[in-house]
Each structure stands twice: as structure tokens, then as C-alpha cells.
Amino acid sequence: MKSVELFAGAGGLGMGLGLAGFEPLTVIEWDKWACDTLRENKSRGYPLVKDWNIFEGDARRFDYSSIVLEVDLVSGGPPCQPFSLGGKHRAFRDKRDMFPIAVEAVQKLAPKAFIFENVKGISRASFANYFQYIMLQLSYPEIVRNKNEDWLEHLSRLERRKTSGRDNGLTYNVIARLLNAANYGVPQNRERVFIVGFRSDLNQEWSFPKETHSLDSLLNDQWVSGKYWERHEISRKQRLKIPARYSKRISKLRQANLFASSLKPWKTVRDALHDLPDPLSKETENHFYHDHVFQAGAKVYPGHTGSPLDFPAKTLKAGDHGVPGGENMMVDLDGSVRYFTIRESARLQTFPDGYKFHGSWTETMRQLGNAVPLVLARIVGASVASQLLKAKESEMKQEISSIAA
Question: Per CATH, is 213-370 categorized as 3.80.10?
């Protein structure tokens, strides 16, 4: 199935969608370092990106008429800074707001489906009207904003179309949900809004994939059955003490006696990094892992206390002005802290070990902080791909029936 990727960054969403069966006709990204990362891996013949056609430049200047094949999927993560809790919160007043470009791509390419990802902040109350505006634009991409028309006037026209019940022209059935990557097997507590739409003429029913992992299953494995510590060969003296905030929850799990759940335990920082050498050990200086180099300077400060070893990492962040020191560091059991290496951060974002990054530590961490975890992209993408295949099968059956008639 053919796709077009906007705002590709370091390639997390695109590679995850590739694993789900989508083949990008073009991959669009403006950041030099991210493009260097994509080109480096492409030139090395890295399987997930070796055939990518990379367009380095502003998505607003891309010629969509150059794409002549039918597009099954448009995807991308429009820059999150306009809506990030750590940003300036300017939304539609921020020149980095690229949702209008995402809508334009849908309008011009008329894909069978689209997947867009953004920060949790986009769904908060202060952005409620603008988020509704984004959803309605994606639902009716042919109803474009007129010259000299402000966005609220355009929103009113879209609302009238929505309430009219008319379904002629290019329309999409659009839904959005806040997903926590930890609930899908990513070793990181990362909440992001996913917006998914299917072209209305496909008549498809779809919902987001079910969660596969849970906090309760992790707590049970750690402080009820003890399987977590046994798996990592951690003695009782070395084990983390029960966090106060989870003590009541753990007591209930113990009272349940035989806790039964179809969900797997959340994956932790230790789970993700257990087989990587310690970057501070001289005995492992000649390891073969890309980008696994100690970065000095980590320190705790108010609001930035790092990620505990035996829980999913806190959300890795790109930062509005460089890399925020606290979010991207690990807290060991003795309370000591250090920055995650680039390779460790890549693992927390579920990038494969063979994938290399370009740029300084700060630039690379920015790429990783902006990325979509591959595992989550693959899960959402595979669900959408499955639905599109069902639509294709239904279409073929109707064609056969009409021929037979």
C-alpha cells in the first residue's frame, strides 16, 4: 500500500508504518539533521528506509501533483511546539502550526486514510475550539478557507456542513484518541493524540487497537509474584522499595491473591536497557553499539527529576530551547543520575539498534524527542492497514458480483 509521509523527522512513524505494510512514495522533512539521519541510513542500505524518496524542504512547497499513483495513506506528526505544554501555547497563532498543510495534503491526494500524531496538549480545554476546527477540516478537506476569512468564520462554515448531513464530495470519518505508548509495550510513559480518518466512500467501521500492557500487571510482577526481579536476577537487598504512591494499589493486588490479567506488564527502563553495556565502564569502551557514549552534566532540579530504572521512562522531550536536562536522564536505585545515551534514548523510542543518527547530542536528542515510537506506529498502522485491506476485498467482491450479474 502506498503512502506519503509529512514531517517525517528521524523516521519513527514512517518506519513503524513500513513494518505495517505501507510503502512511502515520498517522505517530506525540512530539518537538515533529521534529513541527514534519513540519508545516512538510506545510503547504508538500512532495510526500513533504503527505498525512501526523501524531499528535504518545507512541506508547503511540495508539489503534490508530482504524485500520480493512488495514495492509500497520508501520515505525519505536525510540529508539536504550538500545542506542547512546554512550549509557548500559541496554537493557530504559531507560524509552526502545520495542520493546515496536513489538511492540504489530504485535500490534494484524497488518500483512503490518514494518521496524524501530536502532543497531549492539543486536546486540552484552552485549544478545544481549534482542535474541533482541525477535526472538521480533516473531515471536509474540500471546504477550504477563503482569502481574508479568519479561522472562526471558516469553522462556522464547517459546522454548518457537518450539521447539514450532506456527504457529497471528498469527506472523511475522523476520530481521535489520547494513547499512552506504555500501554502498547513501549518502555516510556508517552501520551500522544492520534487522529485517524477513513474516506467516507469506503464505508468502514474502525476503532483504535486495544491496549496490550498495563501498570497493574507490572506492579503485580514486581511486588506480588516477584517475577520481574527474578527475571533480572535482582536480589532482595537490591530491589526498589515500594513507591508510596502505589502502596494501596499493590495492597489490593495482594488481596486479590491470584491476579489474572490478559495484559502484559508495562516495560521498564531496565527491561529496555538491560543488555546494553554501562557507558561509564572502561571495560566496555570497545562495544559495537552506535551512539552509546556517556554525556556528562546531568543534574536534578525542580520539576525535572529523571526516569526511575524500574518503571517506564518519563516522556523524552525535544525541548523548545535545547534539551531539558531532567526529562532525558535515568535515576539509578542509589539516587544517582546520568543522561540517557543516544542509543538508550533510541531504545526507549523503540528504534532498532542498527539505526544511526546525525548531529550533535542536542540535535539528536531533539530528533528522538520529536519521534513517534516505532512500536506504537506499527500497531496503529497495522490496524489501519488491515481495515484498508478489508475495504479492498469488499470492493473486489462487489466488482465480481456485478460482472456475474
Answer: no
User: pLDDT, tens digit, for every residue of 130-161?
Assistant: 999 999 999 999 999 999 999 999 999 999 99
Cell (9 digits) for 290: 552506535
Cβ neighbours of residue 215 under 8 Å, at least 6 residues apart? Answer: 182, 266
Pair 378, 16: CB distance under 8 Å: yes
Classify residue 313 by burial, with Cβ atoms within 10 Å: 0-12, 13-18, 19+: buried
Highest mean pLDDT (candidates 88-92, 162-166, 170-174, 256-260): 170-174
Question: From residue 198, how far is each of 78, 178, 203, 210, 382 by CA, in Å?
Answer: 19, 18, 8, 19, 14
**CATH of the domain spanning 2-211+373-401:** 3.40.50.150
Residue with cell 562495544: 287
Q: At residue 51, what is the residue type? A: D
Q: What is the pTM of this model?
A: 0.92
